Amino acid sequence: MAEVATVTHEEPTTRKPKQPVVTISRDYGSGGDIIATRLAQRLSIPLYDETVLKEIAVRLNDDPAIVKLLDEGFGKAKDMWLYRLFSGKDVGPDAYRDTLIKVVMSLGRMGGILVGRGAHVILTDACALRVRITGSPEVCARRMAASGHGSFSEQLAKAKEIDHQRGKFVWEVFHSRLSDSSAFDININTDRMGDFEDVVDMLMGMAKAIHSGRVLAL
After folding, report:
1. Parallel, antiparallel, or unpaired for β 47-48 and 21-26?
2. Band of the pLDDT at 86, cuts 50, 70, 90?
3. What phi and psi values does residue 148 have, to the nearest 5 degrees?
4. What is the pLDDT confidence band of residue 32, given thresholds at 50, 70 and 90?
5. pLDDT digits (tens, 9 = 90+) for 104-133
6. DSSP 8-state assignment for residue 18
């Protein structure tokens, strides 16, 4: 039986990063990606999404396409035996998890917006604002359909599937539920929000407060 690697974080990051740090976990169609982009622009900080995958691929010295498979469905790693057989590389769940943690911790020390991939769990003890952007599947699907991404029925099925996969990823990698509100500093439902700028304005104030240390000390 293969030994399961124990994942340990690098030194807990409690010192103040160079710039504000925000993690954004989002439902499909909830506006999370738009909010993340606008917030990064308003705060003049980097937005990390695909950058995380590229950095993981570099550190693992592997094909970015393989890393993307792990990223899109952690459980798919169990079915990658054929790839490992021919490539001679053993890029499995443990290697991916360890590298993901190191990359996010490294980015968290510099500052920026980190989208998805359980960053809110990795940076639990860091000086970071952890945000969850949600929306009911029906409203999110209607929003995406209105934006020209397909029919309502197609988008509804896509919303349910993607949200399920994202929740499954965080559970399989970190044993944390996206439905656990205590894992986030703020949960925002965008069902009745037509203008995401209001959300951005609110998050700007919160991000600056946490970065400057104007938070409740427990």
Report:
1. unpaired
2. very low
3. 85, 25
4. very high
5. 998 888 889 999 989 999 999 888 999 999
6. S
- Strand ranges, E, within the chain: 21-26, 47-48, 112-115, 129-134, 186-189
Torsions phi, psi of 156, nearest 5?
-65, -45
Q: Look-up: residue for tokens 């798919």?
A: 76
190: tokens are 């965008």
DSSP annotation of 104: H
CATH architecture of the domain with range 21-207: 3-Layer(aba) Sandwich (3.40)
Question: CA 37 from chain center: how many Å?
Answer: 14
Say how many Å lie between the first and final Cα of the chain, rounded: 43
Nearest to 184, CA basis, from 138, 118, 110:
118
Question: What pLDDT is attached to residue 98?
Answer: 86
Answer yes or no: are the C-beta atoms of 110 and 18 closer than 8 Å: yes
Residue 5: both structure tokens together: 């690697």
| Cβ neighbours, 10 Å, residue 176 | 15
At 152, list the tokens: 């309502």
- Which pLDDT score is estimated for 82? 45
Which of 47, 186, 207 lies closest to 112, judged by CA? 47
- The DSSP code sequence of 97-133 is HHHHHHHHHHHHHH-EEEESTTHHHHTTTSS-EEEEE
pLDDT at 91: 57
Residues 6+ apart with CB under 8 A from 42: 200, 204
For residues 40 and 36, what is the distance between their CA atoms, to the nearest angstrom? 6
Q: What is the pTM of this model?
A: 0.80
